[in-house]
Amino acid sequence: MIMNDMAIVGTDPHERLRDDVRLLGGFLGETLQLREGPALFNIVERVRTLSKSGRAGSDRDLDALAELLRALPVESAVPIARAFSHFLTLANIAEQHHRVRRRRAYLRDPAAAPQRGSCEETFTRLLARGISPDALHAATTSLSVELVLTAHPTAITRRTLIQKHLRIADALARQDRVDLTAPERDEIIASLRREVLAAWETDEIRARRPTPVDEAIAGLLIFEQTLWDAVPRFLRSLDAALTRATGRRLSLTAAPLRFGSWMGGDRDGNPAVTPHVTRLACNVARWMAADLYEREIAALRSELSITVATAELRGRAKGAREPYRAVLREVRDRLRATRDYLGGELARADLLKGDAAKPSATRVEPYLSAAELLEPLELCYRSLVETGQMVIADGRLTDVLRRVATFGVTLVRLDIRQHASRHADALDAITRHRGLGSYLEWDEPRRQVFLTAALRDPNPLVPSDLAADEAVREVLDTMSLAGGMHQESLAAFVVSMAQAPSDVLAVQALQAHSQNQLRVVPLFERVDDLGAAAGTLQALLSIPEYRDRIQGRQEVMIGYSDSAKDGGRLAANWALYRAQESIVDVCREAGIELTLFHGRGGSISRGGGPTYLAIQSQPPGSVNGRLRVTEQGEMIQAQFGLPDIATRTLELYTTATLGATLDVPAPPDPRWRPVIQQLADVARAVYREVVYDDPRFIDYFRTATPEVELGTVPIGSRPVRRTREGGVDSLRAIPWVFAWTQTRLLLPSWLGTGEALAAAIERGQHDILREMYERWPFFRSTLDLIAMVLAESDARIAAEYDRRLVPPALQEVGADLRRRLESTVKSVLEVMGKERLLTENAVLRRSIEVRNPYVYPINLVQIELLRRLREDREPDPQIANAFMVTVNGIAAGMRNTG
What we know:
Elements: H1 15-35, H2 38-55, H3 59-71, H4 74-108, H5 119-128, H6 133-141, E1 144-150, H7 159-175, H8 182-200, H9 212-246, E2 257-261, H10 275-303, H11 311-316, H12 323-348, H13 370-386, H14 390-407, E3 413-419, H15 420-433, H16 444-456, H17 470-484, E4 490-496, H18 501-510, E5 519-524, H19 527-541, H20 544-550, E6 553-559, H21 560-567, H22 569-590, E7 593-599, H23 611-616, E8 626-632, H24 634-640, H25 643-662, H26 672-693, H27 697-704, H28 707-710, H29 733-743, H30 753-762, H31 766-775, H32 777-792, H33 795-805, H34 811-832, H35 842-871, H36 877-894
Parallel strand pairs: 1-2, 1-8, 2-3, 3-4, 4-5, 5-6, 6-7, 7-8
């Protein structure tokens, strides 16, 4: 059967994982023979055999494999790529389920020590470190972590396939039951076989590019899928652990974790996100929240048939025999009214159909705020507690109360994001109209004088008769929308590419007379802007008109993606670290409560990596109980797609933030700072010399990777470039990373690191580098993550892209990059004191090694398809669709898109 020899790891704890992979691979093999025929199946097996032997060292077999795939017509090559893509996806599902299986086994083992990062382990460790129970309780109940879900311009997997994958994972979980009867086991096997076949028969290519509203709806489905139940489940475990550690429970209104979203609000470089789209995204979230709450209230009414109640509740129920049900009937009716209130606009936008679009017969007020929904629920809770029915109060009602504290009536609160230059353009139109000259030509001091005067002026800044172009009108309409929306629907206004105080003041001035004024969050993204961030913030906080508006609180966002695209991963990491340190200092000196918002992506080059490690590696004092962080695209499914993994993710965010708050690490040794500054300077210089200064690089990049082709396929609503023209500067960070991920060179994650480390070693700094790696969590995590990327890279595959696609005049660029990759591996290993990469993570190393032979054929098919696409004057839709199949497959094999 296809790929039955796949062994993810070679130790007994993973035997069941191997069994799952074999089982799913066997069903895929059956599907291939059934639907594509024995001939295709035999070719797939031949390709697999050649790829395995070639990866093991046989250049002759690699050449034979390349020739075999090159000679195949598209209609034969595509099923081969699909076969390997589907297998890698099935292996991913099995690995995700195995994580759940191991966690459950761990929790069931009474002899096992508490799992690292669990609430139990964290509370025990913090108490042992001298943190008092009162301080632990206070920090836990006041914790504020917000996970902000964002759409991904290169999101790959269609929602219909995700649902099939979830059913496969569920069947694997049911198969683990020890009390299964033979008929039950047969039914599970049959369901797995059906789902594998159904996935094969489903077109993985979208028929059209998703709209921002499509993306918002898709993103919200994760709440119904897992988070709606995972949040109260996690909070129960947190409550129990906190009670054991401190003797005090978690408050019902405590919300250590909340959720935000950019989907439908992020208009930076995406003209498809309009004020109408933003309103729809908010209303869809509110409608979904009302729908989910109504289901809970229906179940709660069924349970609370109790007649014993306080006088307060009986009075509210107007003497009803079953007072809890009477009060909850009112809640149900208002939730239905909320859906009706929102449903009209959603139905007109064709977002609701059938019964969901029909209004109910209720004629009561909708819920507009969480406080309105909370009040009757708290009344029921008080009544149960005061009449001696705490056991009942602590059941479903507690879970609903905790959902309201976490999700409110909106599920998520939407951020609005726009580029700073768009606000400057709008102000320029205003100043010209008012005869004041060109705002764009003013220097920074003059801009600040104008904007602070506008903040003091009781008259509106925007003239009623302003004649504005479409771009300026969109900015002004967005401000009007934000000012008119209910305050619980929107959260923050994020200003991309912020560089000066006027970039923040501009938004403050434009929304100065709005009913609902959003907090303004500067986003510092490029390396130089990060270096100047503290100065910008200090200047802002010195402006009385600004201080009056922020009420002692400031949020600052730091961008991992564009900083790395600007200067490389190593230099960007140090710039981010230093920026956080200096921003913390500025806010501490000014007496301002700071929240840092981390714009992290899924890939290492965009700030991704293990959550716990990332938070624990932040500068001392930068967390302080408050944290916002983005969860992007494919990482939403990876982190929250299965209930147990979602619960564990929530736990890790909570415990890592608590640990960084209460057990603040010592600052880095002063001797290390000049060393890493030199590393960053060299790494950035090398990176920019290659990426920005070499005139050949852009042409090489566009021929050696599928960057151009990725911009033409329907995988996301947002354009891959902020502007139509330009080189790397105009390209968004996500497709920049995605293109290199497809070719396996993964250049953004490591370029410059090897040269910087080698230069430091030549200066005699080997010992201090080793010391930094062993004793400084930030430096260790930085090198460990770079090492992980190096292990995933494959110079041989990248060389094949060059050989087949790159003109001879540009071939040396690629050869030079592969030499740099090789030397980077050597330098990283030397500093780490290791002989090979990932020696401390055998599971991941083995997973990469075993996946490689299955990704390689997909790469070869992609190369041939790219060659044909570029040769044809008129793109062949069949080849374009085939190309997308290979994109899916490589992303599945790499478990990352960008």
